[in-house]
Amino acid sequence: MPFTATISRNISGVIGNVFTSNISADANLSLNIPVPDGATDQSVGGVDVKIAEVKFMYLISTTDLTLKTNSSSVPDETLNLLAGVPYIFPNGGNYLANLFATDLTGLFLTNGSGSDATFSLEIIYDPAP
Asked: In the prediction, which pLDDT does 11 show?
């Protein structure tokens, strides 16, 4: 069963443009992870995705968080997520490159915000046969 994400961007003002894009793939990974205040390098299980297969990725946190990929001590990438500001990557039809250059085999979250957080992740991808 294919999974579909719909991305809509509405720009109000003089041009009043609406952009909509539907992205479909055969598999998805969907996680909502509680991250208590003070957590350091909290491991997120169940992550094993090849970046070349990703069609859509959405990350968001309710507080500022640091996200490390694949290792807590020597990460391949480190992202500083801002509270309520999503990272959205649609593969194709976009000028932005994916911030992740390496396959994802694990995620590690650090929360020094002063409040408990919820980290949400949605990845839609086509796994290789």
From this structure: 64
Domain boundaries, the chain: 25-125
- 126's CB contacts (< 8 A; 6+ apart) are 25, 26, 27, 53, 55
Measured CA to CA, the distance from residue 125 to residue 24 in angstroms comes to 8
Task: Please provide the CATH number assigned to the domain covering 25-125.
Answer: 2.60.120
Please provide the DSSP assignment of 79-124 as one string: EEEPTT--EEEESSS-SPPPS--S-BS-EEEE--SSS-EEEEEEEE
Low-confidence ranges of the chain (pLDDT < 50): none
